[in-house]
Amino acid sequence: MATDPDPQLVDDLMEVAHTVALEGGAMVREGRPSTVEVAATKSSAQDVVTAMDLAVEQHLRTRLARLRPDDAFLGEEGGATGGTSGVTWVVDPIDGTVNYLYGLPSYSVSVAAVLGEPDPARWTVVAACVHAPADGRTFRAGAGRGATLDGQQLRVRAAPSMLDSLVGTGFGYRAERRRAQGRIVAELLPRVRDIRRIGSAALDLCTLAAGGLDLYYERGLSPWDLAAGQLVATEAGALVSGLNGAAPGAEMTVAGHPSLQRELCRFLEANDAATDL
Ligand code: IPD
Ligand code: CA
Questions:
Q1: What is the pLDDT of residues 150-178, one digit of tens each?
Q2: Can you give the C-alpha Rg of the chain in angstroms?
Q3: How far, in Å, is the centroid of ligand 2 from the Cα of 217?
Q4: Architecture of domain 7-153
Q5: Which of 36, 74, 177, 239 has its CA 20 to 30 A from that of 62?
């Protein structure tokens, strides 16, 4: 795994991430029709894509190809394009599409630059921008540079215990997985302050970074759900991992202040949370 990325490269990638995330956000904000229609469905009838998801991803792809022609690209809607620089842009044009569909404000444009394979088990995320167009919040992070919300430095909260923790989570789109996820929530709910389901994994991780959640866990995240939020959370002092010492990723992602994150991992491991049974 690559370490200590070149500081000038980090600065350049942070600037590009910020520029294109804001452009994508402006498209989403200004182009929202009075009624948003579903353009297609994916893993299930509930897993929807709108014309705006497709248009924003196309814009990000085109702009990044112009600004950084040697970099690779991985987007939720259009897949991967190769590059030669070792940098891959991992992009979710709208993270929280169901909120966007219903006119709820918790959705975001998520843009990250990673070194190495665009795979959470192997990548080093070096620059990130998560922009929430509905309220204008912009989260930024760079490897070794810290994390900010609208220019203010972020630090994760250290809740005194699990019982005092507000815990974010999310659910997949397939019924079988949801049944298993519901079982875990039922076990966890009596042991924590409360549960939140914000509806955008990128905003879950950024909200955690800003102290708006104490802990977050989710099974089933894709690289584009995770990349930018992972760096924002980590740079704000969170530990972000999978279970049993694994890297975060599709099997499980657990984030929080190091003093509590391990306790949530142990709970999830003991309850077989990384299965759909
Ligand atoms: C979804 C959101 C949601 C999470 C789902 C993701 P999408 O992304 O991040 O919070 O629970 O697992 O698929 O479909 O809105 O881009
Ligand atoms: Ca999406």
A1: 999 999 999 999 999 999 999 999 999 99
A2: 18
A3: 18
A4: 2-Layer Sandwich (3.30)
A5: 36
